[in-house]
Amino acid sequence: MDKLEKTLESRTVRPTAMRLLVLKFLLQKKVAVSLTNIEEYFDNSERTTLYRTLKTFEENGIVHQIDDGTGTIKYAVCEENCNCELEQDLHLHFYCNNCDETVCLTEYKIPHINLPEGYLAENVNLVIKGLCEKCSGH
């Protein structure tokens, strides 16, 4: 069985042709991508199909959403043992003001923050903005 198929099946996602193609595309990217980026690559595919594929991936812990402050949601593949849990798998994201790329900095974890009593966190997102190593010249 193909590695991509195993990846999907390990997350209880049926490996359809489109899901396999989208996963392969996402895995080849070193940066987070928007639905529009995916649409441009798969120009003969329906937007609805691509969106549903991303939602299925997100619901099953294959990708996570990133709100980098640009007004466009981006998607990145989760780490191998990620469960997208608030207490465990949160990491920094970096948005480059020059090239507009957003990358996961998975080695930099967001620490647990104790909220006041009665507050319940449902999502945490920490984006650092600046110049990436490519654009800063370092």
Automatic annotation (TrEMBL):
Keyword Metal-binding: yes
Coiled coil (UniProt feature): none
Keywords annotated in UniProt: Metal-binding, Zinc
Organism encoding this protein: Gelidibacter algens
Binding sites annotated in the UniProt record for Zn(2+): 96, 99, 132, 135
Gene Ontology biological process terms in this record: negative regulation of DNA-templated transcription; regulation of secondary metabolite biosynthetic process
UniProt cross-references to SUPFAM superfamilies, sorted A to Z: Winged helix' DNA-binding domain
Gene Ontology molecular function, alphabetical: DNA-binding transcription factor activity; transcription cis-regulatory region binding; zinc ion binding
Cofactors (names): Zn(2+)
Protein name listed in UniProt: Fur family ferric uptake transcriptional regulator
The keyword Metal-binding is annotated on this UniProt entry: yes
Note on how the cofactor is bound: Binds 1 zinc ion per subunit.
